[in-house]
Structure formats: structure tokens, C-alpha cells
Amino acid sequence: MTLLIIADDLSGAADCAIAFASAGLSTVVTLDASHDTGDASVVAIDTDTRRLSASQAAERTLMACQTLRKPAQRLYKKIDSTLRGNWAAEVASLQSLAGLAIVAPAFPATGRTTVEGKVLVNGQPLESTDTWKLEHTDRSADIAALLEGAGLRTAKLGLSTLRGDAAALASHIVEIAGGDTQALIVDAQTAEDLQALATVTVSIDESLFWVGSGGLAREIAGLPAMAKNAAESPEAVREKHAPTLVLVGSLSGVSERQCAMLKERASIGELVVPPAVLRQGKAHADWAGWEIRIGEYLRRGDDLLLRIGRDEAFDPAEGARLSTLLAAMVRPHFAHVGGLVATGGETARAMLGAVGIGSLQLLCEIEAGVAFGRPISSREGHRPGVVTKAGAFGTDHALYAAWLHMNNAVEPLEYATGSVKNPALQGKKS
């Protein structure tokens, strides 16, 4: 079985696809449907539709599917586990082409579950979270309402049915697929729930496609149907004695905690670029000074945590533009970067786009949803290792773990055991 994954941002595409790379399948993430993905078993495309209108997102999603999907290839529409973006309109655009949408956004490993058709984050309703309030204060988080608002007829599959007899579950889904239901919303609280759903649906011949986060994807990746496509992955080759650049465009509380641990434990400098400088671009009097400071760190070979600051004028809608300008500030010095860690899909896409990197060969997973890969090609021939991670995602340890990976370092025993809070880090670059 081969698979096409369609995601609305780069970190989402990577954190979904990395499950298949970890299972040994040749896996490519691309930023453009026109890029050559070779004979990869799994292809994930970032359509970059998170900030578009619903109609624009739907049109681009459908076009990506029509361009990339091959005969007999299964389809996975990757959505954010906290329902950000235009996912419902995108699913609706694919439904007539791909059949019944099996909608299961749960990702239990990261605290996201679905109960009675509603998303919970660490047991709390999605609507009560800071992430939802920041971007969707005027919008319902009810999955059925969102899908029905996009014109789809829905049904729900509860835990008792999912956890029952597998043959009965398969018959139930086949019956629904043969009726007038267009989207089946599936509850899931555990990885075992998602595994049961994956096992049954992968064997069904009826026309259907999956709609989920990285949670369902990793259960599909572990199935025997995928294993026969597995091939030996290329070794991850890292730049030696070159600095690691950690780019953080996300302003979520999760990112703040991750940055705090990284600064506490790693040998890394920090620069926080004021958004006012980025808004004006090169016309700002301080632009050149910030560009020089970034270059000084990287040319010395010093690891750098580079962040976008926040001010009273901050608007979540300007995230993509600020990330693009931050990437432009880094671009003159990118040849000195030995490893890139990018937090936030917009941030990762902006930086890769600025230096002409269109696709990544995924190699391994650092922790759940944190993907490491290497550019297939680049405009200037420079191909540093790249780690991508969604902004409001991952454990507090995620950025530090990515830094350790890039530096071939081992976490000091004191940190691993929690016996001390602030010893000097002993790991060195290879």
C-alpha cells in the first residue's frame, strides 16, 4: 500500500509522515505538487492553506490531490489535532473524489482525545484552551457542526462500537460507506482505539479516506499492509562543527516552556527580534543590525535560538508574514547553519522557501511529532539536517531533544534522572 498525505502546514505534514519513515518506508515531504518525489512509498504535501479562505483552501487541496494521487494509492487528509485551519472545507472538497471520510483527530500520546464527537485536550474541552481562544473565539469546536457547515452529512462512531468485535465494526463501516453518510466521526481515547480503527479500515475495499492527526497515522504506519513497502532509510548525515539554528515563530505557551528548557540546559545563545523591526522589513533602521548579530553567531559556529518577539500590536494573522521576514534576515547566513530546528509550520516553510529547499526526505522521529529529515536538494547545494515541530505541540523537552540530536549529544544523567536542575551540559558536537 502506498499513501498520499495532504496537510495544511509543513510541520503537520512532517509530524504525520514521520511515522511512516520511522516504520522504514521511503517518505518525502514536499512544499509543491510540481516537485519530483521519485518512487517514495509515502508522499506528504504541505498545501500551505492554514491562513487562506475556506474556498481557496478547498480548491488548493483538491488540486494537490488531483495532481499527486496515483492509481491504487490511499489518501490521508492530515488535520490539526486541535482543529485549526480550514480542514472541514478541505475534507468536503476531497469527499466526492475519495469517498467516506473517516474522521479521527485524536492523538492520545499528546493528550488529544475525542469523546462523543468532541475534542478534549488533556481532558479539557478544546474550546476552553488558550490555543482555541487565541484563533477561534467566534467559532464552535464541535466536529459535526464544522463538517456539516462545510456541506457534509455526518454520523458518529462511539467507543463501545469501536472496541467491540472487529468483524462487526468492519460491517458497520461498510454499511455506512454504502449509505448517504459522507463523514464518519470516530471517538478515540487511546492508541489502541486508533489501532483498531486503522486495522479495520485499511482492509475495507469500499471507497474511503482517513482524516486525522499524527495519532491515527502512526497506527496505520505500523500495519503489515505498509510494512511490505518498507525499505532501508538513508543514513542521516550531519554537518560537523557547524552551528544549530533553532527558529521559533510560535508564541504559544508550549513553545515558551520548550524554549525555557532549551536555554536552561543547552549551550545556546538567544536573540529575540522585535516584531516592529520585522513588520517594516529592510526599511527599519535596526534591520541591518539584527542581521549582523545573527550572522556573528552563526559565523562563529555558535548555536542560536532565534525568536520572534511579541508586542501589543501582535495579531495571530500576521504570523506567516513575520516568519517570511525573519527567514529573509537569516538567509544571507544560512550557508553557515549545520542544523535547522523550526518550530511552527509557517516558520519552517518560510525558511526552507527562502533558501530554495522544496522537499525533505524524512529519516527519523526525535519524539512524538518531532521529525528529522534532510533536504533532497537546495538552490545553493547546502543541505543541513532539518527538524520540524508544530508550535503548540510536544513535551517541554522537545526543543532540547532536537538540539541534542543535532549536536550528537547525550542528555546528562543528572537531567535524565531529574537529580539536579542546572549542571553544565557535557555533550559536544561530533
Question: Main β-sheet: number of strands, strand sense, barrel status?
Answer: 15 strands, mixed
Q: Indicate the radius of gyration in whole angstroms.
A: 21 Å
Number of domains: 2
Uncertain runs are 232-240, 419-430
Shape: globular
What's the quaternary structure here?
A: single chain
CATH superfamily of the largest domain: Putative sugar-binding, N-terminal domain
Please report the distance between the alpha carbons of the first and last residues. Answer: 38 Å
Structural class: alpha/beta
Please tell me the CATH architecture of the largest domain by its name. 3-Layer(aba) Sandwich
Average pLDDT over all residues:
89
Proportion in β-strands: 15-25%
Spatial strand arrangement across the major sheet: 9-10-5-11-4-1-3-2-16-17-18-15-12-14-13
Describe the structure.
With about 425 residues, the chain is an alpha/beta fold. The protein has two domains: about 5-225, Rossmann fold (3-Layer(aba) Sandwich); about 245-415, Molybdenum Cofactor Biosythetic Enzyme, Chain A (3-Layer(aba) Sandwich), CATH 3.40.980. About 40% of the residues lie in helices and about 20% in strands. It contains 17 helices and 18 strands. It has helices spanning about 10-20, 55-70, 85-100, 130-135, 145-150, 160, 165-175, 190-200, 215-220, 225, 255-265, 275-280, 285-300, 320-330, 345-355, 400-405, 415, and strands at about 5, 25-30, 40-45, 75-80, 100-105, 110-115, 120, 125, 155, 185, 210, 245-250, 270-275, 305-310, 340-345, 360-365, 370-375, 385-390. The chain has a 15-stranded mixed β-sheet with strand order 9-10-5-11-4-1-3-2-16-17-18-15-12-14-13, with helices on both faces. It has a three-stranded antiparallel β-sheet with strand order 6-7-8, with no helix packed on it. It is globular and about 65 Å long. Residues about 230-240 and about 420-430 have low confidence and may be disordered.
